[in-house]
Design a protein that fits this description.
single chain, 6-stranded parallel β-sheet, about 15% strand
Length: about 375
């Protein structure tokens, strides 16, 4: 039986991992364990480690990595802390596969630790572009170290090939975040909306915005522009706090001082309902680009954080200025725009997890896999 070590560092990636965890747990030849780190264990970000522990999957280790500061140096130190903390876990566990997702620093740190043993690395969601965040470079670094790739779109798969990855290493899967999304979002909404102080008919603005870490921007000022624009629209608002990127804590302070409901984290089933019943998702979260199209939910994508990422027909781009954001929201929530949405996502068909499990179970772990020579 193959032993898998799956790295989860944030509320967002754990929601994406859940369908994968179920699929590999059900596979007779795979045994997953979780490595819990980063935001899950950082004070002030919702104590999401509790959600991970309560999910019932086996946990190999918990590794704190997030420094207390809110600047670029702290982001860099977090990658170093991930390498230092995760290397002993990989040495002890000696998994057959390390599974990582996306582009966060703790995922990169885990990969840099694992390749020294060596351990086979499978990377989900490589090949994307997010030009407004340092995550873009981190994602490509993971790509060059990883041995198998499970991109979310054909465009991402093509980019992996252009980066030099051999075609046999690339397996089109789609985003696992779509696998259970429609089931979760179809739950009765009234109780969830009441729990978050929203009207039971929905129609709220869901604010989820992170800092632009590739630009010399004032993150707090960007959040003030978003708050002013959403206030002018006049719809009920609910916010989910930003992540640990440099500037995120300053943005969180703006949200708290605005007097609107703002949560460090919400469980994925609740998030699916809050998204499905929203008039629009406002900010720059990848959820607006990957998951929201499937639910026919408009997404106002602010600024350059997601620049370069493949978009569905639900996205309206806006500069990070109040008037531009207002105009984008007005367009997004218009009946005509919503009626035009196809209800399809460019990130797959909801079958990513079983595809991944089958490939991981069948792929030989041999010299051909582990040596990334010119191919």
């Amino acid at each position: 039986m193959r032993q898998l070590l799956i790295v989860t560092g944030t509320r967002a990636d754990f929601g994406l991992w859940l369908p994968v965890l179920r699929a590999v747990t059900e596979h007779p030849d795979l045994h997953p364990r979780l490595l819990v780190t980063a935001m899950h264990l950082a004070e002030g970000f919702g104590d999401t480690a509790r959600e991970v522990r309560s999910a019932g999957f086996e946990i190999a280790a918990e590794v704190p990595t997030i420094p207390p500061g809110d600047g670029p140096e702290d982001m860099a130190r977090a990658v170093g802390a991930a390498i230092e903390g995760i290397a002993p876990v990989v040495r002890r566990e000696r998994p057959d596969w390390l599974l990582v997702l996306g582009d966060r620093g703790e995922q990169l740190g885990a990969v840099l630790a694992a390749i020294h043993f060596p351990v086979a690395v499978a990377h989900l969601a490589g090949g994307d572009r997010t030009l407004g965040a340092v995550d873009d470079s981190q994602r490509d670094m993971i790509t060059r170290a990883a041995h198998l790739h499970f991109p979310g779109s054909e465009a991402a798969a093509d980019r992996l090939r252009r980066l030099g990855e051999a075609n046999w290493r690339i397996h089109m899967a789609g985003s696992p975040g779509l696998d259970d999304l429609e089931d979760l979002s179809s739950r009765p909404a009234a109780a969830v909306l009441r729990r978050y102080g929203l009207p039971v008919e929905g129609g709220h603005l869901l604010i989820l915005q992170h800092p632009e870490t590739r630009a010399s921007r004032d993150a707090a000022a960007d959040m003030r522009e978003t708050l002013a624009a959403t206030a002018a629209i006049g719809r009920p608002r609910l916010a989910i706090l930003p992540n640990t990127d440099a500037g995120g804590r300053a943005m969180a302070e703006q949200l708290r001082s605005a007097g609107i409901p703002a949560y460090a984290s919400v469980p994925r089933p609740d998030f699916a309902v809050l998204l499905a019943t929203a008039a629009a998702l406002v900010g720059n979260s990848s959820a607006g680009i990957i998951e929201a199209p499937l639910l026919r939910v408009p997404a106002v994508n602010i600024g350059s954080r997601q620049e370069g990422r493949l978009q569905g027909d639900n996205v309206v781009d806006a500069a990070p200025k109040q008037r531009a954001i207002e105009h984008a929201i007005a367009r997004a929530i218009s009946p005509e725009f919503r009626a035009s949405l196809s209800g399809t996502s460019p990130y797959g068909d909801g079958q990513a997890a079983p595809r991944l499990a089958s490939v991981i179970a069948a792929q030989p772990i041999d010299d051909r896999l582990l040596r990334k020579a010119d191919e």
